[in-house]
Amino acid sequence: KLGASDAPPSALAELRAAQGSGAVRFRVAALPSEGKLLRGALCAAGASTLVYPTRGLVYARFDASASSHADASAFAAQLAAVASAAQRAGGTWRVEAAPAALRSGQEVLGARDETLALQRALKRAYDPRGILNPGRGFGEA
């Protein structure tokens, strides 16, 4: 188990509650060997991080509120920092949580790649009215 222990079913909900409702959270995945690089880049950008080294996952949290233009600029900078760190590590990223006003019109599911057309087709097939995850449209704002 590598020092791991079982957690109660409520552990994830408690963690999310502790992270706060105004927070912007990203999930970055890469090879486990890139975790230190990712964490360093994200911390340098002002994020607090939670790292799962054996899974190659790094969660980054930035404080934000949903109202001002300055917050929209900060969110764009955070997005750019996360995307850059993920690219340098050969990984992927996505926005886990952000106020709707900030993520509107932004790419929140990572870099566009050769699978984008497939992702859009699947979204249209399973969500033809676009009611699931509004604001997360695979590059379609």
Would you kindly provide a written description of the structure presented here, covering whatever features stand out?
By secondary structure, the protein is α+β, with helices and mostly antiparallel strands. 38% of the residues lie in helices and 18% in strands. It has five helices and four strands, in the order H-E-H-E-E-H-E-H-H. The protein has helices at 11-19, 35-44, 69-88, 100-103, 116-126, and strands spanning 23-29, 48-52, 57-63, 92-97. Helix 2 (35-44) runs antiparallel to helix 3 (69-88).
Keywords:
141 residues, four-stranded antiparallel sheet, 18% strand, globular
Q: Which series of helices and strands comes N to C? A: HEHEEHEHH
Distance between the termini: 43 Å
Number of strands: 4
What's the gyration radius in Å?
A: 16 Å
What strand line-up does the widest sheet have?
A: 2-3-1-4
Structural class: alpha+beta
Q: What is the general shape?
A: globular
Q: Percent of residues in helical segments?
A: 25-40%
**DSSP helix count?**
5
Largest sheet: 4 strands, antiparallel
Poorly predicted runs: none
Residues in β-strands, percent: 15-25%
| Nearest-integer average pLDDT | 79
Q: What are the SSEs and their pairings?
A:
Blueprint: H1 11-19, E1 23-29, H2 35-44, E2 48-52, E3 57-63, H3 69-88, E4 92-97, H4 100-103, H5 116-126
Antiparallel strand pairs: 1-3, 1-4, 2-3
Helix pairs in contact: 2-3
